[in-house]
Amino acid sequence: MTDLAALLEEFYKDVRSAPDTTLIDGDELRSKIEFICRCITNKAPIRFLMACLLGKLNNSKVDIRKPYTEIGGKGTYSGRAYDEQYVEPFVIKYKLPTNSTTAFLTPAFRNIDRTLTTDLVLVGRPRQVYTNVLELLDLVQRRKVEPANALKEIIRFLAIIKSENETRMKQLLRELKHSEDTLPLSSEQIITLLQQHLSSKNSSRLPVLMVAAAYLAVKDRIGETALPLQSHTAADRQAGSIGDVEVTIINDDRIITCYEMKDKRVTIIDIENAITKIATLQHRVDNYESR
Fold first, then answer.
1. pLDDT at 265
2. Which residues contact 126 (CB under 8 A, 6 or more apart)?
3. What's the pLDDT score for residue 89?
4. Residue 244 has what pLDDT?
């Protein structure tokens, strides 16, 4: 058995010492791997590939295209086990730009019971990222690409992207610092900036942050504050919250105001659902206090 945690550390050390050195022959294949790593809207395929490649490195006899024990037959393995046991601690440790949770629970990679051949259509966007994943798995299985080289290339691109993001963030922070003779933004300019951000793609979380920030900015004046926000992807019922932003009186846990953000017109059904959630939460509180 290979020490996979140590192997990942070794690969990371190698790519950090030579970030401009690639182990992949062919510009086309290298571009496809880079496309997977740089896909902003869908990072699940990165961890999926890393887990599959680790499985192949740990046991060369497995079929890298069969990362599900439900597939049956020879060569199957649990890609999710490799993902959660080795990939997740590794990407968290080095803050690499990937999914924060296992890729095997995302819609495209959940409940698959057949070999991941290139003719399989995985449902998800962008389509090209899944096409690239299947092609890479096929090349590794046909021994056209070494799994170690493919995994190193993924880690190399992730390290490069991480460095680029850090540089960009430092530049933005420098630009945000006002010199003594710089006038602060007017109210109109602030509203314009917020409107521009709200009209951008992937800004569904921004209304929640705006309301929470407003309460936190004036909490000492109004005596009210917003509770810590729940995960953006967690359902309110699952997280045990009433809505997106919950407001309490300072030094009091009781919720006095709740905001639920909707990108549509509020209907009677929405209101009824909110009332049901409040009643359910209150019932839990009453049961807890009665113990």
1. 78
2. 39, 41, 42
3. 94
4. 84
Report the chain (291 residues): mean pLDDT per 10 consecutive residues: 89 93 92 95 94 96 95 92 95 92 90 93 91 97 96 96 92 70 76 86 84 90 87 53 83 82 78 75 60 56
- What is the amino acid identity at position 184? P
Sign of torsion over alpha carbons 242, 247, 249, 253: positive
Give the start-to-end residue ranges of the domains of the chain.
4-167, 193-289
CA–CA distances in Å: residue 110 to residues 25, 114, 116, 289: 32, 12, 12, 40
Relative orientation angle of helices 44-58 and 147-176, to the nearest 10 degrees = 150
Q: Burial code of 154-184, b = ≥16 C-beta within 10 A, e = fewer?
A: bbbbbbbbeeeeeeeeeeeeeeeeeeeeeee
Burial class (CB in 10 A: 0-12, 13-18, 19+), 191: exposed
pTM of this prediction exceeds 0.85: no
What is the pLDDT, as a whole number, of residue 76?
96
* Amino acid sitting at position 262: K
Angle, CA of 139, 107 and 262, to the nearest 5°: 140
